[in-house]
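== Fold encoding ==
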Amino acid sequence: MPLDCTGADALDAEIARLRGLDLPGLQARWKALTGRKAPPHLSKHLLLRMLAYRVQADAWGDLDKATIRFLERLAAGGWAADAPVPLPARRALSPGTLLRREWQGVLHQVEVGEGGFSWNGATYRSLSEVARAITGTRWNGPRFFGLREGA
């Protein structure tokens, strides 16, 4: 039974509630979320971490398949620990996602829509257009909003 923790405040509140539970309470929460009994050997600390991860993944999305395969292969000893980590494929931003960036002391918030990006009451076709409207200069929009390296 996934929770409705789409906002950061709701997610923080749910994780705070989890922290207040004893081990039997965490085990009951695990069963409610997964439909299965919690593994009996897990400590309270580890079960809390696993539940917090699951709640966040349900709210904001889990790891992509390439990252999961990489971690499984690394855990199985199929890759050296110092091997370069493959970059995940670019993921599309879901409509409703909010992007925030402080620029020259002003916090700017952009909402991802079905056909573009909304900022200050206007809709733009790309994040680069939004970044240019904010800064007055050409920017790589995903980089400006911290979605790519070098922001």
Notes: Helices lie at 8-19, 23-34, 44-60, 65-75, 127-135, 141-144. Strands lie at 98-103, 106-112, 117-119, 122-124. The CA atoms of residues 23 and 42 lie 9 Å apart. The first strand starts at residue 98 and ends at 103.
